[in-house]
Specification:
40% helix, 13% strand, alpha/beta, 7-stranded mixed β-sheet
């Protein structure tokens, strides 16, 4: 059978039909967008939950980790062995009483880092070395080898580091570098936000005794302090004046720093100020027996008429009497 006309075809042009591959691609894009939103939401919730419920120290710090590491830097080529042994006795006893750890460093182990700079600069890499060996410890107490801890039963947490205690000690809104720096310490800093605890005397910041909290800020601080430009600048008091420069002109450092009264952790055994010093009218931060935490024989190794061992001996004998009353001296808890 034949038809007069051919079968009628659809009027739709073949090129006008929907592109199935484009539709599939659009659907896949929507699926990927949905998946990305789900992943982002999960990540956001995880980070938010981590922020409001921080991991407890017991879950992230290995058992037996000392909360405080005491860093003492000796020049073993110049220090009398008997004197050094007495200083170490003092440190060992204190560390064992409170679960701390000692880190003894030798100046000459770090001179390859300081090169032509004064040897006193080796303090900075020594502290960094201690932090590397004790990555889970919270605080690092840098203490001059010409110092004795005179109250061995008093922990650093109780004496200084507990936030409420630290807030009660903070000296706020004063020249950060004495006597008249235009840059002042912060007046609103909280104890749990402090990463560097320092003292000052009538002239300078007290580097003979300071406390640094472990963390990214501490590593940044040490790197900034140890900058080759500062080491090559030939400051009169080397790393001391370099530190005074960066705390005044680097707000990131000033924001985490606090000053506490000198007698809290840096009392001197004698007043070295000149008679006509205008700061003489201020309190003389001289060690007071049965009151102050430690005594420092400030610059005993830099003046020809002084002898560190002789100045230390009467204080060492008093310290021996104190530890005898506490059951005797404790020993062996160090790393060098």
């Amino acid at each position: 059978m034949q038809f007069a006309l051919p079968p009628r075809k659809g009027s739709e042009h073949p090129y006008a039909r929907p592109n199935r591959s484009a539709a599939v691609a659009a659907a896949k894009r929507r699926q990927m967008q949905l998946l990305g939103m789900i992943i982002f939401s999960i990540l956001f919730l995880y980070l938010f939950w981590s922020y409001i419920t921080p991991i407890s120290p017991s879950e992230r710090i290995p058992a037996g980790t000392p909360p405080v590491v005491i860093v003492t830097l000796f020049d073993e080529e110049k220090t009398d062995p008997t004197y050094m042994r007495k200083i170490k006795n003092n440190r060992e006893d204190y560390a064992l009483r409170h679960g701390y750890r000692n880190f003894y460093a030798n100046t000459h182990a770090y001179t390859n880092y300081t090169k032509n700079a004064p040897d006193s600069w080796t303090l900075v890499p020594a502290i960094r070395h201690a932090m590397t060996l004790h990555p889970h410890s919270t605080f690092f107490f840098s203490l001059s080898p010409h110092s004795l801890i005179m109250q061995p039963s008093l922990s650093l947490d109780e004496h200084i580091l507990k936030p409420s205690r630290l807030e009660s000690l903070m000296i706020k809104d004063i020249p950060v570098v004495p006597p008249d720096s235009v840059i002042h310490t912060f007046s609103h800093l909280k104890g749990n936000k402090v990463d560097l605890v320092l003292t000052q005397d009538s002239e300078n910041l007290g580097l003979g005794s300071f406390i640094l909290r472990q963390g990214d800020w501490a590593r940044y601080f040490l790197d900034a302090w140890f900058d080759p430009l500062y080491r090559a600048y030939n400051f009169q008091k080397a790393e001391g004046h370099a530190l005074e420069h960066i705390v005044q002109w680097h707000p990131t450092i000033l924001a985490k720093l606090t000053l506490v009264p000198q007698r809290i952790m840096n009392a001197y055994n004698m007043d070295r100020r000149k008679a006509d010093d205008p700061q003489k009218q201020k309190e003389q931060s001289i060690y007071v027996e049965n009151e102050d935490f430690l005594v420092r024989f400030f610059e005993c190794d830099q003046a020809g008429d002084r002898n560190c061992a002789k100045e230390m001996q009467p204080f060492y004998e008093k310290w021996e009497e104190v530890v005898k009353g506490l059951g005797g001296m404790k020993t062996t808890n160090s790393q060098s």
